[in-house]
Amino acid sequence: MTHPIYRITFVEYLPPYSLCLRFNDGLTRTIDFEAILEGELFGPLRDPLVFAQVILDPEVHTVVWPCGADFDPATLHDWPEHEAAFRAAAKRWSLNHVDAGKTKTVRSPATHINAPPYADLAPLPSPNVAEEHPP
Length: 135
Prior knowledge:
Layout: E1 8-14, E2 18-23, E3 28-32, H1 39-42, H2 48-51, E4 55-57, E5 62-64, H3 73-77, H4 79-100, H5 129-132
């Protein structure tokens, strides 16, 4: 079974978060990326100055950014089939980012322990016992 290999032949930046892309099969597609710019890889592209640094990589024939973000040209070619999954992932990334910035309080049932944790463990001996205890 063979599948087509798509290459992007032209990219035009459309502020603030859109790209007009032309593919080697003649398809032209304009994609607004704003809703998916979350997470470690795509989050930096939320800065319009960073997003504007998009270039067409001549070797792999896709759009890339200096921060390391890129997309598979086949995904962009068939964007309507993939957009919902990217939006869902961006929502998860966004929620994880919000959660990571908050201190979480975990409440557990009260326990009555009089000794500090690990009180029953003996201290580890020093590797230089001879120096600590001269003859």
